[in-house]
Design a protein that fits this description.
Radius of gyration: 25 Å
Strand order of the largest sheet: 2-1-3-4-5
Shape: globular
Structural class: mainly alpha
Oligomer: single chain
Number of strands: 5
Strand content: 5-15%
Amino acid sequence: MMGLLLCVWTVATLILSNTGHVRCDTNGGHTCMACTIVLSLAEQNAEIHNGTVVHGLERLCNVLPVLYREPCQGFLSVATPVLQKILFEDVFTPDVGCHALGFCYTVAGTSACNLHPKPRNGIRGAIKRAYPDPMTWKIHQQKVANFQSDVCDFLPGLKGFCQMIEQKLETHLPVVDVDGDRFSTIQTLRGTNFRGRDCDDVRDDIYPGRRPIDGDRIQDSNCNGIYGTDKISGKSYEELFCSDVPNYGVVVLGDSAAAHFHLPKEWFSAVGMTLSSFEAAPMIIANEIDLPQLSAVTGYKNSSLVRPWWTDSVYLRLRETNRCNHRDYQNIGVNGAESASMNSTIQYTMARNRTADNPLLVFYSLIGNDVCNGHADTIHDMTLPEDMKRRFTSTLEYLDTKLPKGSHVVATGLADGRILYNTLKDKIHPLGDWRQDLTYPEVYSFLNCLQVSPCAGWMTTNETLRNFTSERAANLSLAVKQVTESFRAKNFDVHYIDYDIQKIQNQWVADGGKASDLIEPVDGFHPSQVSNFLFASYFWEEANRLFPGAFPRNPHNADIEKIFGDQGGY
């Protein structure tokens, strides 16, 4: 358990904080945070079952899939002697445990970071009481360090993945793509959960979204599941069913909100954790902790991962309107993306041939990372309006070289992230479910101390800083809007819409929902599945308002379904 959660949280937070800014975490940073979470869960588990923290860790190991239990227990064998030395009732806290293990430390000139109340004599005093001889403590720490020089080393299968994530983080392309057309045949690793399924991974001229080759009489070249010839008319089914209305694909160029970043609540609640809690861990990690298949723009399926809610998306609306659009979606959402990284690398991973493919409906949606980072001087690394204008203009210029004529672009503004603190300030974080003792502001302060917060400007008790961050976000939104009003493209039109999550929240509450339903409970930062569901409708309505008549209903949808069923699925 210690190993799996350390690896999951370290990978997740590294992905989440990869904003294009220089990382400057301190006092143990992400690894300290991960350790503190794990020991917090172990301590609560011990209380639930009337045991010690070591017993709690053992129980947590036993909820892991069989593959991970042995390395988890191996880690416990070296960590247990350290933990047992500090298990005094008036001394032990998860913070003390992680400092004793060496995952957390205090850099000279800084204050010790703590998620839980400090012992009476402080963290350092607690360790001195357990280890009067500093050399003994150092020897125990070294044994832990030797066992896990890399937090993913001791997990079979995950070490290689962690290395791959580090290497592939900047490519954002499918890992499995034999023909190099940027579409895959597997779900994860930037595969079909992010982009429509390739129906021939040997030929690079066969992929979702292209115009059919010879009417797809012989083979399905655009992967929408429609091919062959009608025996009565002699016409291809593509000509019969897909030529009366325009066909469109949908793309989102965005950040972790667009990719639908999601950490399961049951991973972080001692109350809700069960034997089945981690069954989906390999898929979630291989998706970079994202659920694009359930997202507002490109979602295409329902999932028990976000029960009891379901999925709606712009893609599903396009497909419902015209089943010839089947599989034509691309989620180019990247955790940590902001205008600079979008303009320098991410936008180039979109797949579209201006002359061979159908037009696109593109959403450009960067709702926070241009004002969000975890640095102590967070304002210094916020994007300036003039830079936002320049980068967004450059992205539009690039899109004009790639998008087929007749495409449409919708650019959203940034969110007003004050909704986070205002909604969650009095709520208990999942880590505090058992004792009802850990609030979101306390979690925010801990992350800020380690300088690993996804957004120090909004996830803070400092109201002045929250207001400043929202003012800068509003100025950047205005910059995006001004570009959409002045930019003239050859192949598409472009419009601006607000990312008004406050309006969505107000509507949800008026309909009987809870305000907190719209925010991911674990990170307290991202839009939840409920938000994605509601934004799908908002995005679709706005697209139809901005581009009236662009997406008419295909009169042949029933014929397509009758002959081709689910069109090959996903």
